[in-house]
Amino acid sequence: MSKRNYSRREFVKHNSLAGLGAAVAIGLTPALIANCATDTSTPAILGGRKIRTKEWPVWPQWKPEIYEEQVLRVLRSGVWSRAEVVTEFEKKWAETIGTKRCLAVVNGTNALIASLIQLDIGGGDEVIVTPYTWISSIQSVLIAGAMPVFVDVDPETYQINPDKIEAKITSRTRAIMPVHILGLPANMVRIMEIAKKHNLLVIEDACQAWLAEINHKKVGTFGNTGCFSFQNSKHLPLGEGGAIVSDDEKLMDRCYSYHNVGFPFGEVIGAVGGGSVMLGTKMRITEYQAAIGLAQLGVLDEQTTLRNKNAGYLKSQIKDIPGIKPYKLYDNVTRAAFHMFAFRYKKEEFQGLSRERFLEALSAEGIPNLSGYAPFLNKQPYLENAFQSKNFQKMYPKEMLDFDKYKEENECPENDDLCLEAVWLQQNLLLAEKSDLDDIATAIERIQKNADKIKNQK
Ligand SMILES: *Cc1c(COP(=O)(O)O)cnc(C)c1O
Predict the structure, then answer these.
(1) Rg for the chain, CA atoms, rounded
(2) Going by C-beta distance under 8 Å and a sequence separation of 6 or more, which residues neighbour residue 125?
């Protein structure tokens, strides 16, 4: 144990009987002991005692005793390419979400791509998207050959702002892709009303929102399709994996065929003995991935409940600290997934202490954190690169591919501000005990009280 980590609580625990002599014997100087005993207010970044030394829950959480048997069975069977276990996983996921069908695919990105392409969205079409998301949401639209049109975020919920959608609808608009970002549901009731009014398709990016609900209905079931990710950091981690859910049987048959090199499936009928009947690619997941998913599916509900309870508690503990503005949920949200616990950091109320220094100070207290998405997803070079591609050049009139004009028309100032102010705490912190969450609140309060000193340190 290093001297620096020798906290007062541990000091008392180990040495109250043995007395000071023992403490000196293990290398603590009297000055350090005095410091340990009294200094509970100096931020760790300025040399004070770190608030938290205990580990946070890890992610992913693998429980060999419970999970490994069914995975080993698959490994030993030698049947590794798509077969019964994948089908069982799909059946369970459809049941869990509450749709007729589910198709498992290699990842969430490809779930979005397959959805778009099988909904016949492509060259010349526009898809309404949000700038506060993981890059895959936008890349999937470009890969389908469609043009992303950005609608700014609601600064309190961080979701696509429904009030700003209609202004962006043109004769080319075919679909809206809401993303339930950070596991917080988008305003699907409003979005579906707008889609209905303008005859638009809806592809829900629920890649961070497993089991989240609006009026007790799961997200991913509102649109024409819902897409999920099971990548390693996600709440049902398979390493890589994804799923499309829908009640539209014909569409799902086409998605199946598409994910299996265009071989006939269900309604997609081919000649007996014939080969591929439609354009397709290959997006199948393996049996052992499905087994890993099935193994962990049992704890997802319980963990989601815990994240909701802990997020609510943590929010109540920090919401009154000046300069901390936690996420807001729409009134009809009955459950969130909380892929991240997010708040906005207002440096004006922290004596001008920059967000970067605030995050460093928080890390120093033993609270891991992230600054979230980099700004300007609506302006980055990948868009220009797509516009310069042969396909885009052939599919769109020149003026639509003018990148400066595009950037101007797709400005999202609310998102720019959000990206510069957001603070994220990862979901695994929400799997800790309630008392552990108090450490987070204590750390933020300590930084708030000492913001001036931290700012002037260097
Ligand atoms: C993770 C994620 C995806 C893509 O999923 P992958 O499985 O990583 O391909 C898409 N959208 C959002 C919002 C995500 O978080």
Answers:
(1) 25
(2) 145, 146, 147, 172, 173, 174, 175
DSSP annotation string for 405-451? HHHHHT--HHHHHHHHHEEEEEGGGGGS-HHHHHHHHHHHHHHHHTH
* Average pLDDT score over the chain: 92
Whether 441 and 317 have beta carbons less than 8 Å apart is answered as yes
Note if the bond before 413 is cis, omega within 30 degrees: no
Spatial distance between the Cα atoms of 208 and 228, rounded to a whole number of angstroms: 7
Q: Is the pLDDT of residue 73 over 70?
A: yes
Q: What is the pLDDT of residues 297-317, one digit of tens each?
A: 999 999 999 999 999 999 999
Pocket test for ligand 1, best of 105, 109, 140, 338 (most atoms within 8 A of CB): 109
Angle subtended by helix axes 108-118 and 249-259, to nearest 10 = 120
Check pocket membership of 425 for ligand 1, CB cut-off 6 A.
no
State the pLDDT confidence band at 23, using cuts at 50, 70 and 90: very low
CATH for the stretch 64-295: 3.40.640.10
For atom 14 of ligand 1, the residue with the nearest CA is 207
Question: Could you give the CA distance from residue 226 to residue 185 in angstroms, rounded to a whole number?
Answer: 13
| Ligand 1 probe mutation, 204, 210, 231, most atoms within 8 A of CB | 231
How do 213-214 and 225-229 pair as beta strands? Answer: unpaired
Residues 401, 407: Cα–Cα separation, whole Å: 10
Is 207 a pocket residue for ligand 1 (Cβ < 6 Å)? yes
How many angstroms separate the alpha carbon of residue 396 from the centre of ligand 1?
Answer: 27
- pTM, 2 dp: 0.91
E strand intervals along 232-296: 242-246
Give the Å distances, CA to CA, from 425 to 84, 228, 307, 343, 370.
38, 21, 12, 9, 6
pLDDT band at 18; cut points 50, 70, 90: very low
Any atom of ligand 1 within 6 Å of the Cβ of 132: no
Ligand 1 pocket, residue 286 CB under 6 Å? no
Alpha carbon distance 256, 102 (integer Å): 9
Ligand 1 atom showing the smallest separation from residue 180 Cα: 13
CA 301 to ligand 1 centroid distance, Å: 20
Compute the distance between CA of residue 309 and CA of residue 61 in angstroms, rounded to an integer: 19
Q: What percent of the chain has pLDDT over 90?
A: 87
Residue 328 confidence (pLDDT) above 70: yes
So where are the chain's domains? 1-40, 64-295
Gap from CA of 207 to ligand 1 centroid (Å): 5
Give bridge partners of residue 102 from the DSSP assignment.
245
